[in-house]
Structures are given as C-alpha cells and as structure tokens.
Amino acid sequence: MGVLPPDWALPELSPFNEAWFTSGELAVQRCRSCATLQHPPEEICHACAAMEFEVAVLAPTGTVHSYTVVHYAANAALAASLPYTVVLVSLDDAPHLRVVGNLLGDSPAAIGLRVVADWDERTADDGTRILLPQWRPET
Amino acid sequence: MRGAAVVVGVGESTYYARGKAPETEFQLACIAIRNAVADAGLQLSDVDGFVSYMDRNEPVRLSAALGTGDLNFTAQTFGGGGNGAGAAVTLADAAVSAGYAECVVAFRSLAQGQFSRYGQAGRMRRASGVAAYTAPYGMLTPAQTTAMQTMRFMHDHGVTQDTLAEVALTSYAHAQRNPRAIRYGTPLTREEYHASRWIAEPFHLYDCCPENDGAAAIVVTTAERARDLARPPVAIVAAAHGLEHRDGVGAFGDAHFPTAHHRHVGRMLWHRAGVRPEEIPVAQFYENFTGPVLMAISEMGFCAPEELNDFVADGGIRWPDGRLPINTAGGNLGEAYIHGFGNVVEAVRQIRGESTCQVPGAELSLSVSGPNYAPGSAVLFGRR
Question: What phi, psi does B379 have (nearest 5°)?
Fold first, then answer.
C-alpha cells in the first residue's frame, strides 16, 4: 500500500491541536471542568461550555470502525502513492472517539481489524517538527 | 404555512460536460433564471428575491445584470454542500409565505470547468482546522469521505455492491428518456458498472457523479399571484432542513456516524406535510455517490436499512413499475450534476405531468438533497 509524500498537507499547529500532532502520544483534548473528551478538539466544551482544556493520554490501540482504499489521485502529487488506505479508528479507551489515519504495511484493511498507533516524524517547510499519528495492524 | 407559496416556473441552461459550456458560470445562471421566469409567464422586473446555496453568483450582480425589480429578499444557507438545495427552497417558501418578497428565484449555477473541480484537491502543504485531521492522510474529496461513511453503512446493514449498482443503473436508465441529460443515448450496463475502475472503495467510477457545467432555477410566488400566470402552480407542501445534535463535529466525529443527515429532516418534513413516506409516488434523491442515496432512502423512512437490498431489487426504484421511482430525469449521475438543483426542477415537473419518466397523476413529489453533508434538507411538492 502506498505512503503519502512526506511534504503532503502537514497539520498547521494551533493551541488546540499542538499536543496531538507533536507529542508522539494519543493526546486527546479533555475539559478541565467536566473531563469530557473531544476529538477533534473544539474551542468550547460541548458538555459544560468551559473553555479551559488539558490533555488526556489514551492507550494507542483501537479497532478499525471504517475505511476506504483510495485508487485515484485527487492531486497529481499523490499519484505515486496509489492505492492508499485511510482508516477510521475507534479508540479502546474512548470508543466514541474516532481517529483518521493511514493503515501502514501491506495487510488489507477490514472493519474490526485491531490496530496500534505509530508516529510518522515529519518536518514542515517552516522547520516545525510534526509527529503524525498513523496505524498498523496489531501483531 | 402549507401551500402558501407555490412554484410557478422552472428553467435550466443546457447541461454540459465539465469545461464544455461556451458560457461562464454567471451567464449560465442568467440563462436558467431567464428561462424559469419566462416559463412562469413573468417578467424579470417582477423578480424581487434570490435564494441559493454555496453559489458564487451573488444576487447583487444578478439583479443588476438581469434588470430585476427592487430586491426585497436575498439569502443563502450555511454549509451542507449539495444538501442546501432543499434548504434554498425552504428560504424561498419562508420569504414568500411571510410576505418579505413576492417573486423569489431559487437557483444554483455551477461550472466546474471555469472554477475548481469538486473531485480534485489543490497541492496542499499545510492543513488547518478540522482538515488537519483528515487532509494529511489523503482524505480530501467528497468521493473519499462519502466512501468512508458508505463502507460502514454497508457493513452495519448488509447492503450489497449490487444494491449500489442499482442506484447508478436506475439514473442512467432514466436518462435515456431525457434529451436534456448528458448521458442521453449512452446507457450503462450492470457489467460495465462492476468492471469500472475503483475510485475509493466501495465506489466504482459509476457510483460517482460527473463534474458538469450548468444552472437550474425555479420561481416561487404566492398562490394568489399564481392565479394569473401561465403555468399550473405547484405547491410547496413542506420543506425542511437541519441536523441532529452533535452531527456537525467533522472528521467523522458525528454522533450518528454514518448518517446522511435525513432522520431529523424526514421527521420534520412528514410532520409538516401530514403525510407518510408510503404515500409518496415519486422521489428525487441527490446522488453525489450511490451509497448516500441508500442512506437517505432509509433515513427518510421509506424502509429500514436492512430492507434496502430488497427495496431496490427487481426494479423497485425504477420507472414505470417500481414502488418508488427515483431520479426520473436521470439525476445527478445521468442528467447533470448541478449540485442537485436539477433534482428540484424534476420534482416540480412530476407534479406538472411533464417528466420524461412521468408517474401518472403524481400528486406528491419529493426531492431529497445531497446526503452526507450537514445540514440535510428536503422539499415536498404537491398539486395545488
């Protein structure tokens, strides 16, 4: 399966997503007032309306909730990566939270496949170091 | 509110393959609007309002270019992509029913040849906001995001690939009777469907709408004004748009993932109309891709998701003998992809008795807008 080019669409960091994309852990946004978890992070807690957040580090394991195998290049820069697999992973520690990533390795994706997180180290064009969460089949 | 506002005119430009329109997108908008107003037997100077969704062609420009009357109402819905088509009709209905305007044009013009293609993405170096969680993984276009939703939906409810195929084959079959359709004269076989290349699994090429250039419009006015006009008025029996709590989270975080955003819309629509899904003889279901059509059929209450394979089997959604013929002009797949507004025009034509796949005596006609982008919307037309 294809791997996307190293300079393709790296996340623009913000106070809301910096931990998720730089810590090398599944650093999920947690409300400081009521402990509600939100992913992707939001600017306000949907449960209690608080705006102060902390990070909860969740176990890097989950189950494939859905996936697609992409066979066409939406941009020419992705043509050499075809086909590539995008998975939506339901986290073991918070099954209602779903995380997008590529499935690395050659195993075919399937709903229900057990996966573990892995981090892809990238450097953005402004020198920012990014640790991009990805997924591999559990061995 | 029921029946206070009526549709008195429909019009469209010629529909073109992407990049083949000799006109600009703005010119296409003007052509469709002019045709709809003429169809109604009205003058452009009678038009006092415009509504749309995701459209670049602003009423400020349209009004100046077309020579409308003074504008009394303009509005466009938030978000929703093609799911805004029914919502735009809701706005027209609201404006006319409340008396803010008397003659409102609802329209959509889309020239993917002149502007960016929905199936493509720019060369992206950085992604921000919710896209930061999807774009780095090559999750970029509607085909891909909708594939992710459809894959889970098929898994949960045992929906088969052949059921997806039936949605595509239905649109292409109906397009063979419609000379306006881009696919007129170019039928599709089940073998060609299954042999076509993958785009994003579970979507083959023919599960995906084309990219086209064109425009479509309707004219909405009061029932009173309609009495003197050229065409029999078509009532807006009910319209609805909205979404359920926490279904707009993004990056597949929706509370009800996977959803077409039509459970809530369906409940509102049937309640307002005072009718049940089984009373509907004909419907248009926006096909950006085949999977969302199936999700919307079940969410609107026509059958349980587990019953979808049987619902579409044996010509169940085909004209003339199906229990619910859908996409009777060929839909987005076969007629043209004008962000679903062609489906609204076709739903009106079914009430007028002018469809090329006419359901005899149809007294109610449903158009369900672009599934899988929130908020959802739908509109039910009927005989006045």
Answer: -140, 140
CATH architecture type of domain B5-114+209-383: 3-Layer(aba) Sandwich (3.40)
Cross-chain residue pair A67–B151, CB shorter than 8 Å: yes
User: What average pLDDT does the structure give for chain B?
Assistant: 96
Q: Is B5 left (phi over 0), alpha (psi -120 to 50) or beta?
A: beta
Q: Which residues from chain B sit within 8 angstroms of residue A65, using beta carbons? A: 152
The b-or-e profile of B232-252 (16+ CB within 10 A means b, else e) is ebbbbbbbbbbbbeebbbebb
Domain positions in chain A: 13-58, 60-139
pLDDT bucket at B2, cuts 50 / 70 / 90: low
Establish whether this prediction's ipTM goes over 0.85: yes
If pLDDT is split at 50, 70 and 90, which confidence band does B363 have?
very high
C-alpha A16/C-alpha A55 separation (Å) is 10
Place A2 in a pLDDT band, splitting at 50, 70 and 90: low
The residue length of chain A stands at 139
**B123-127: long-range contacts at Cβ-Cβ below 8 A with a sequence spacing of 24 or more?**
B123/A75, B123/A76, B123/A77, B124/A8, B124/A9, B124/A75, B125/A7, B125/A9, B125/A10, B125/A124, B125/A125, B126/A9, B126/A10, B126/A11, B126/A12, B126/A124, B127/A9, B127/A10, B127/A11, B127/A12
> Does residue B151 belong to the interface with chain A, where contact is any CB pair within 8 Å?
yes
Mean pLDDT in residue range B312-321 = 97
Q: Considering only the C-alpha atoms of chain A, give the largest distance between any 2 of them, rounded to a whole number of Å.
A: 47
Answer whether residue B68 shows pLDDT above 50. yes
Across the interface, whether the CB atoms of A11 and B133 are under 8 A apart is answered yes
- Tens of pLDDT, residues B170-212: 999 999 999 999 999 999 999 999 999 999 999 999 999 999 9
Integer CA distances (angstroms), A11 to A5, A14, A100, A135, in order? 14, 9, 13, 17
CB contact under 8 A, B138 and A84: yes
Determine how many CB atoms are found less than 10 A away from the CB of residue B100.
Answer: 14
Partner residue facing A12 (CB), from B121, B132, B202: B132
- Output the DSSP codes for B274-299: T--GGG---EEE--SBHHHHHHHHHH
**Whether B44 contacts chain A with CB within 8 A:** no
The verdict on pTM exceeding 0.90 is yes
